């Protein structure tokens, strides 16, 4: 009931108004932590993550210390996030930003020939890493995306161009996308996509270490101070 109530109250995210104070609502329960950045009782941004095996064994009181705690009935929004599974949260995120993306991913499983063969084989014999349940095609818990360039581009655009991605760079975008999706060559596709992003090229500064000043060769004080030799053979 709490999850349904929370989703009915806050169906979509909104843009922030920096002239109004922000409120953070958080909760930790079970094996997850959820937090909402609120403004005028409306969500601006959110985060939800699972607890590590070490933290999952902590008592309820200690788990609450991993997040700012707001009491019971006043904390419906964050309670919903802390109780929701990662895949369901990803579905919420996709629906909030682009409603038809989830449908395209599901349709891709029925149109890609290789994925059709994989799904049929999974229904007969389970395979390592891959599962077909609910019905969703996953590899180690991540949604499998077939050989569809437009769909892959749409996914990468969502996690790079929009406020969800925020042009975070190759490493951060790779972590975000690979937390939910899998396809062959996903790392190289993400790197090439972000590398070609015009906004990133214009606004991202070079984070490599400064090489320092050039060190020219010393000026010799007199002839034959430094002698070098090389052997060259088979000249025509």
UniProtKB/TrEMBL annotation:
Pfam families: Integrase_H2C2, RT_RNaseH_2
Gene3D superfamilies: 1.10.340.70
Residue ranges occupied by any Reverse transcriptase/retrotransposon-derived protein RNase H-like domain in the UniProt entry: 2-70
Ranges in coiled-coil conformation: none
Alphabetical keyword list: Multifunctional enzyme
Protein's UniProt keywords contain S-adenosyl-L-methionine: no
Matches recorded under SUPFAM superfamilies: DNA/RNA polymerases
Transmembrane residue ranges: none
InterPro entries (alphabetical): DNA/RNA_pol_sf, Integrase_H2C2, Retrovirus_Pol_polyprotein, RT_RNaseH_2
The Integrase zinc-binding domain, residue ranges: 149-205
UniProt protein name: Uncharacterized protein
Organism: Solanum tuberosum (Potato)
């Amino acid at each position: 009931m709490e999850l349904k109530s929370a989703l009915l109250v806050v169906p979509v995210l909104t843009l922030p108004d920096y002239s109004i104070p922000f409120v953070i609502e958080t909760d930790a329960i079970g094996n997850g932590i959820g937090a909402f950045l609120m403004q005028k009782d409306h969500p601006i941004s959110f985060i939800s993550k699972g607890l590590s095996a070490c933290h999952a064994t902590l008592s309820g009181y200690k788990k609450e210390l991993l997040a700012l705690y707001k009491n019971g009935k006043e904390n419906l929004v964050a309670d919903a996030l802390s109780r929701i599974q990662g895949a369901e949260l990803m579905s919420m995120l996709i629906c909030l930003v682009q409603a038809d993306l989830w449908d395209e991913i599901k349709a891709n499983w029925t149109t890609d020939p290789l994925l059709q063969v994989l799904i049929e084989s999974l229904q007969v014999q389970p395979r390592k890493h891959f599962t077909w349940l609910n019905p969703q095609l996953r590899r180690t818990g991540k949604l499998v995306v077939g050989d569809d360039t437009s769909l892959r581009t749409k996914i990468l655009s969502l996690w790079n161009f929009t406020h969800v991605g925020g042009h975070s760079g190759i490493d951060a975008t790779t972590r975000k996308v690979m937390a939910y999706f899998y396809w062959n060559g996903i790392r190289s596709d993400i790197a090439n996509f972000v590398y070609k992003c015009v906004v990133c090229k214009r606004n991202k500064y070079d984070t490599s270490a400064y090489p320092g000043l050039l060190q020219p060769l010393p000026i010799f004080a007199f002839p034959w101070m430094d002698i070098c030799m090389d052997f060259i053979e088979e000249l025509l």
